[in-house]
What we know:
Distance between the termini: 42 Å
Strand content: 25-35%
Oligomer: single chain
CATH architecture of the domain at 24-82 and 442-702: 3-Layer(aba) Sandwich
CATH topology of the domain at 24-82 and 442-702: Rossmann fold
Largest sheet: 8 strands, mixed
Number of strands: 41
Helix content: 10-25%
Amino acid sequence: MKPKFFTTAFFLLSTMFSVAANTFVFCADNVYPVARKVENVDTYFGTDVADPYRWMEDSSPDLDAWIAAENTLTNSYLSKISFRDKLRQRITDTINYPKYSLPSPRKGKLFYSKNDGLQNQSVLYVVDAPSASPRVLLDPNTLSEDGTVSLSGTAVSRDGKFMAYLLARSGSDWNEIRVLKVENGETTDDIVEWVKFSDIAWQGDGFYYSRYDAPPDGKILTAKNEFHKIFYHKVGTKQTDDVLVHEDKEHPLRNCQAETDRDEQFLFISSTESTYGNSLKFRELKTPNQPFRDIVTTFDSEQDIVAVVNGKFYLHTDRNAPNKRLVVVDPKQPEPEHWVDVIPEADSLLRGVQYIGGKFVITYLKDAASDAYVYSMDGKRIREIKLPTLGVCGFSGEKDEPTYYQSFTSFTYPTVIYKCDIETGESKEFFPSALNIDQDAFVTERVWYTNSDGKKVPIFLTYKKGLKKDGCNPVLLYGYGGFNISMTPTFSAVRLPFIESGGVFAVAVLRGGGEYGETWHKDGTKLVKKNVFDDFAAAAEFLIADKYTSSKKIAIQGGSNGGLLVGASVTRRPDLFRAAVAAVGVMDMLRYHKFTIGWAWATDYGTSEDDREMFEYLYSYSPLHNIKSGIDYPAILVTTSDHDDRVVPAHSFKFAATMQEKTTSQNPAYIRIETKAGHGAGKPISKVIDESTDVWAFIMEQLGMKL
């Protein structure tokens, strides 16, 4: 996301008063730890806004004590749920099956990851030849005793001899790059540090990567990320010898990524100012130090390199095409006015394009589920790729090999991997699912609700066959609604106990997402962001009106931007829901842009410093600032992690403390703070089981369910 950030004077009143760590506030049947308050007021365009829990933005002994007290309280509540242990065992059982990633072929070798079932981290394997047995290439479980070091990315060199890989610790976005020899798995001495939001792009015996300067001591997880740079690292050298390839001293709030084509003829640099839109430039690599040439210089569209074929670039773009199209670009005339359509924009979103075996494998998103096809190089449709049911698929393959791999998943359909032939269309299961689910026992349906704009849009419902629409069914309504991200049918084993116990799992398509292209996305951003919350409320009201459930039987859940959705929904419509789970949510809409990469979300949100209108709009829905005294709020569980440097945990801390201070409800308002974990990526299976058990136990107990 790209911010338009203006520095505005704020007035901080530093007078503080403390509350003893062992004091509590009583609210109905709940007793909460008291968080000390400070006299802190910020002034926005003449409006004074108190921020009494500002001190929670920084580490301190007081904060440690408050976190410990909150975790003790939350665990005390959860431990009293009679079926919690049984639920933990059921979740463990459902997760405990082999899971595979989509394989990636390279130079006659096949790379994929596998988790045997309960391994904290998936293990990376390589198959050296079609007749060879898989061998372990890298096992992240050996890198830490508790499984909190994870593999967050890999890139194999063009010749297949080296693999560079990204390691993350405790879920942080900070990575380091290491290199191993594919032949024997031996790790080289190469260590590249302070890497963040980076791809790895090989050229010759080295690679391009993106990094920031090292953050100040004590601010690693909170300091604002500025001045992203691209370097080239040659294998076998020290990081101090790396060559600076790209920087932008005039625009500190831009990120940049390097990419090379499969044959390493060109280097592409994509720059972003936000989570949407990128500029793109390139240079030839056959002649050293060639100047870069621009393809796109603005940030009002997205364009991704699909392939370089016969010296021409194929781009997947939404420029002048909100539903996206595939174009071919001549590097001699790379400007957008010279682009030529290969696959023009259609009624459905052109979600994915891959160049495999001399053809394009195309994925459309039609009403939030996949349709897939094979196209020729000149844009003619050759055939449809048949999918097992309503769901989503993915593909991988080499540009000059006919064999490719396909994944497929849906709500009750664990991921299956197929091996396919691009020429004949033949496919067979390569990694079948080892989790046996009776598909006839469940129903997944795509029904249509009327959103707050009067448009019919999908909501996915999954439940046990035989459901009675009597208004009494427990429902978990999930949503996101932001950053052009689409909510599609995907499998998660931890949901099964809820569905097996009679719950309805509902996923609503909301404006702000990417299900219907860029127009749909923009209709849930900035000064129309409330459309997202209104759509979510409309989805809940549909479920009630259509007799699936009642307001006393609906729980809502969302994470990150979805956590904002839950926080805003609870404070705007506390009457509509029985319970809410807000995970790693953006709760302080006036200050989100001041931490780590938060500035990049401004194209979706705007900032409190843009102008009076934007400030007033954000202030009117910011979850933290709209908790009112004397309101009976639904039961709330806030979850966050101490190493989350994407959405810093202070958002959740301040929201939970304020809710506990002001609610008059007998419903609980708890916060669960995970240690040695981040925004979600790379979380060990052991922590996934712990958190899933607690979250689903909370939801099911509040909805009156049993296991």
